[in-house]
Write a structure and sequence with these properties.
Elements lengths: L1 E2 L2 E2 L37 E12 L5 E11 L5 E7 L11 E4 L4 E2 L25 E2 L4 E11 L7 E3 L2 E6 L4 E6 L1 E2 L11 E3 L8 E7 L3 E4 L2 E12 L6 E6 L2 H4 L4 E2 L6 E3 L31 E11 L7 E4 L2 E6 L2 E6 L1 E2 L18 E4 L9 E12 L5 E11 L6 E6 L12 E5 L4 E2 L18 E3 L12 E12 L4 E5 L2 E6 L2 E6 L1 E2 L20 E5 L11 E2 L20 E6 L5 E5 L26 E9 L4 E8 L2
Parallel strand pairs: 3-13, 15-25, 27-37, 39-43
Antiparallel strand pairs: 1-2, 3-4, 4-9, 5-8, 5-11, 6-9, 7-9, 10-14, 11-12, 15-17, 16-17, 17-21, 18-23, 19-21, 20-21, 22-26, 23-24, 27-28, 28-33, 29-32, 29-35, 30-33, 31-33, 34-38, 35-36, 40-41, 40-42, 42-43
């Protein structure tokens, strides 16, 4: 938007408050607003394909039932819906197949089954008249009898979904995902195989973002995902995770590790992950139904001060029972126990790594200073807003945080500048920094008072705003300003000198005190032209002498001129005045003979210069 002296800009922040930190400056509050959109703002279709059963027949063949889930994700009705599945390349020789019966649609469905579908010559599952309303989701079941022969699989299949928007003469398509979620994003083939045991368990382990608790101490969150990839329910489910082996060289601080488990899994409250207590579940009470996936989540607190390496690898082992037979799997990294999508988790096992090398292990205070705004005042001075970012880059809470900025050394008689504070320093909402209300930038240079109540939490950044009125003697100059900070981390004292900008750690190495990160913040003020002359009157009578209202000394500036009569009406206006006014009105009601211009008398004018100066005075027209 445009306001006052120029254009103002802001990028949005998520939520309902443009100034979330309450510092009066919405420009330092920026992050994206996230949302999920089921119904997209354009025509779209999505499809998924899943194997819901594979029943062995007496002749050695299998009846495989596929479920197709299709949905209109767009904003237009889709007609001519078609689902295409070419089965010939799915089951190559020596395997053979036959589609048993027509595709099945539910009662009341807007989809029409194609009874002639055979997956070879006729590859379309649906007939004419099939449609999906906006947001509508529907399913189709197809059973295929497969004689695998010597090839037991896996066999991979995909479905192509199509729909037409008649009003736009537009066709949308999607290739199926594996499973029951028809989201348009991505595509993954759907496998089926016939050589796997009926009891099959898979396990995956993922790690979240570690958080620093104090110097060299971290909380590391883990999630273990158990999946029953077989066709029968599993009992006596157990997970073994030896944390002391994973964090060799480090010290696990937690005496007991609290586990949160999803339905059917019962955590062992005595689990420590060390010594002999490495089993996470009460096995006799834990079950996992066929086709189900369940999560275990827990947090490990470790002290790495004596560790030889800051990279740790962790592996979990899952076991379960089915009719007296044990099944087992070793975890793979991530959340998917079968990342190669071959239905057998046993051939996927990779340790889950966590690396703490990039996390800070020493306390650090960081400062960055920028010039947020510079506004020329009508009297020729400048109102300057400094913005100071203060951040804790260390692993422990900082106390006794003190920050000073001696403006008297920046603006002085030596460089022809003086300053005064417009108001006291202001900080972020809920800030724990103790600002100094008596700060004056000279005898009292401390912006933040470093007593025991002035603190900064781990990873916390605060913003301080300082508004200063600066007057110069007209010379152009660049003024360099730096802030100095100290704090305590326990008994250790940390320090930093501000760098120019908004990021105290410009090289992103976790240490804002590097020698190249103490650049002073420049403020450049232009040379002021103090010789602008505005006449007190002129005589537009055509005698060639003083016939124009001429403003001198503003040649390099844009000039705006408004002239008012004694009743306050605008009689002349120009946003880009060129010293060409001859006393003729170009606005408002004109009195007398316009050819002779405005009548003689006293007029009120406003002159605005592009450098911010403004002159409000009277002038006289003589004829």
């Amino acid at each position: 938007a445009k306001g006052g002296k120029g254009t103002v800009i802001d990028a949005s922040v998520a939520g309902g408050d443009p100034d979330k930190d309450g510092d009066g400056d919405p420009n330092n509050d920026v992050n994206a607003t996230t949302f999920s959109l089921e119904q997209q703002e354009k025509p779209a279709i999505g499809v998924a394909l899943a194997v819901v059963s594979a029943q062995k027949q007496s002749n050695g063949s299998f009846n495989v039932t596929y479920k197709v889930t299709v949905k209109n994700f767009g904003n237009q009705i889709l007609t001519g819906i078609q689902l295409t599945d070419n089965l010939a390349p799915v089951f190559p020789s020596p395997a053979s197949f036959t589609v048993t019966g027509a595709p099945a649609v539910r009662s009341g469905s807007h989809l029409v089954a194609n009874s002639a579908y055979n997956g070879v010559g006729i590859k379309s599952m649906l007939g004419a008249g099939s449609l999906l309303n906006v947001g509508e989701q529907d399913t189709v079941l197809v059973t295929v009898n497969v004689m695998p022969g010597t090839n037991q699989g896996p066999f991979y299949s995909s479905v192509l979904a199509e729909g037409t928007v008649a009003s736009l003469s537009m066709t949308v398509t999607d290739l199926s995902n594996n499973g029951l979620d028809p989201k348009p994003e991505g595509s993954l083939t759907t496998p089926v195989r016939f050589d796997l045991p009926t009891a099959l368990i898979g396990v995956a382990k993922s790690v979240g973002t570690p958080t620093s608790v104090s110097a060299n101490v971290f909380d590391i969150p883990y999630t273990i995902t158990l999946s029953n990839l077989g066709t029968t329910n599993l009992t006596n489910v157990q997970v073994t995770d030896d944390l002391s082996k994973a964090f060799a060289g480090a010290m696990i601080i937690s005496e007991k590790v609290a586990i949160t488990a999803e339905s059917g899994l019962v955590p062992d409250p005595n689990y420590t992950g060390q010594g002999l207590i490495t089993k996470m579940l009460s096995a006799t009470a834990s079950t996992l139904p066929a086709g189900a996936s369940r999560n275990l989540t827990f947090m490990v607190r470790v002290d790495v001060s004596k560790a030889a390496s800051l990279t740790f690898n962790n592996t979990a082992i899952a076991t379960a029972m089915m009719s007296g037979t044990m099944v087992a799997d070793t975890s793979t990294a991530g959340t998917n126990a079968d990342p190669d999508n071959d239905l057998d988790p046993r051939n996927n096992s990779a340790p889950t790594p966590v690396t703490l090398n990039n996390l800070p292990t020493t306390p650090n205070l960081g400062l960055a200073m920028s010039v947020k705004d510079t506004v020329r005042q009508s009297a020729g001075s400048y109102k300057v807003t400094y913005q100071l970012i203060v951040k804790n880059y260390g692993t422990a809470k900082l106390t006794h945080v003190a920050i000073s900025d001696t403006l008297a050394k920046v603006f002085s008689n030596a460089n022809g500048a003086t300053f005064s504070l417009v108001n006291a320093p202001t900080g972020s909402r809920n800030s724990q920094l103790k600002l100094n209300p008596a700060y004056n930038g000279d005898a009292a240079p401390q912006l933040v008072l470093g007593d025991s109540t002035s603190s900064l939490g781990v990873g916390v950044a605060d913003t301080i705003r300082l508004v200063v009125l600066i007057t110069t003697d007209g010379r152009g100059a660049t003024y360099l300003n730096s802030a100095y900070g100290t704090a305590k981390a326990g008994t250790a004292v940390v320090r930093d000198i501000s760098t120019n900008g908004l990021n105290p750690d410009r090289n992103a190495n976790g240490n804002p005190t590097d020698s190249n990160e103490s650049e002073a913040t420049p403020l450049t003020l232009p040379q002021v032209n103090v010789t602008v002359f505005i006449p007190q009157g002129f005589s537009p009578n055509g005698d060639g002498i003083n016939d124009r209202f001429v403003i001198r000394g503003a040649q390099s500036l844009k000039v705006g001129l408004e002239v008012f009569n004694r009743w306050g009406h605008v009689v002349y206006s120009s946003e880009n005045y060129q010293n060409d006014w001859d006393g003729t009105a170009n606005s408002g009601v004109r009195v007398g003979n316009n050819d002779q211009g405005l009548p003689a008398g006293t007029y009120f004018y406003i002159v605005k210069l592009s450098d911010g100066r403004e002159f409000v005075r009277y002038m006289t027209i003589n004829r």
